[in-house]
Amino acid sequence: MEKKRYSKPQAIPREDLEKALFMANEELSRANEKLNQQERERMELFRNLSHDLRAPMTALVSSIGLLREKRDMDEAEYQDILNLMSRRLKNLNSMLDEIFLLGQMENPEQRLELESIQAAALLEEFYFSCEADLKYAERKLTLSLPEDMYCMIEVDPQKIVRVLDNLFTNALRYSKPGDEITLAAKEQGGRLQISVSDTGMGILPEDLPRVFERSYRADRSRTPGDGGHGLGLAIAKSIMEKHGGTIGVTSEPGKGSTFFLELPILT
Ligand code: ADP
């Protein structure tokens, strides 16, 4: 039997080893920097959330104190305090709901409840559901869909409606009576493109790259007390990414904003 001959392993040149070591080191410090950045963002999120949670809690505690102390208050005053408490509780509840949803969507193990549905049907249904809000808000909402849009998408409908709802709520929140909101969609290169635009106050160029960050508000004082917590767009972004989609924005201060969504179409 012929004996197998093994050749002596070639020594890797020192220069190549040093280069590989240098590159591994670089990669490690990039990963480290990313981790540090994530940690900084997490700490900032905790700071902002505890600040935002404290405000309605303090108001609730002082309202309870008032109810305890002022036993002779009239019915109107009593109802005012109860209404205020109810608003604060609703605010707390919606904040906790957003924190929970953001946690779910950022968890890679959390699965979506996917369904194949017609994109136009989902958008039309959402459009009609907004009509109730618009009666009081005095904004005009237009739906613009191509007549021959029959494409199907595979999505978790509740989550996509949540994204649309966040964009629509923002369009209402950052516009005034008489402004216009447009929900539009089209197919482009095997993707579904949806946009929600408004003719509201717009976003300053320096704030634009940060609006999808968790708990970022362009102007914390500008957000109404019972309004957003700066989590809506971060939630929208993580929902879109979980669907293999994207979200983006263009805006002009004083003229309005357009938020774009893109989703893969089923073939
Ligand atoms: P919030 O709950 O504060 O609305 P979001 O995450 O939904 O938080 O939005 C982040 C910030 O982006 C908002 O605080 C606001 O400054 C800005 N923004 C979002 N949508 C709009 C819009 N349609 N027009 C103007 N500013 C917007």
Give a topology summary.
Elements: H1 14-69, H2 75-105, E1 115-118, H3 119-137, E2 140-144, E3 152-155, H4 157-173, E4 180-188, E5 191-198, H5 232-242, E6 246-252, E7 256-264
Parallel strand pairs: 2-4
Antiparallel strand pairs: 1-3, 4-5, 5-7, 6-7
Helix pairs in contact: 1-2, 2-5, 3-4, 4-5
Adenosine-5'-diphosphate (ADP) binds next to α4 and α5.
Primary descriptors:
267 residues, alpha+beta, 5-stranded mixed beta sheet, two-stranded antiparallel sheet, 7 strands, 17% strand, binds adenosine-5'-diphosphate
How would you portray this structure in words?
The chain is α+β, with helices and mostly antiparallel strands and 267 residues long. The protein is built from five helices and seven strands; from the N terminus they run H-H-E-H-E-E-H-E-E-H-E-E. The strands form two sheets. Strands 2-4-5-7-6 form a five-stranded mixed beta sheet, covered by helices on one side. The chain has a two-stranded antiparallel ribbon with strand order 1-3. Helix 1 (14-69) runs antiparallel to helix 2 (75-105) and helix 4 runs antiparallel to helix 5. The longest helix has 56 residues, at 14-69. Mean pLDDT is 90; it is low at 222-226. Bound molecules: adenosine-5'-diphosphate. Adenosine-5'-diphosphate binds next to helix 4 and helix 5. Adenosine-5'-diphosphate (ADP) binds at residues 166, 170-171, 173-174, 198, 200-203, 211, 216-218, 223, 228-234, 257.
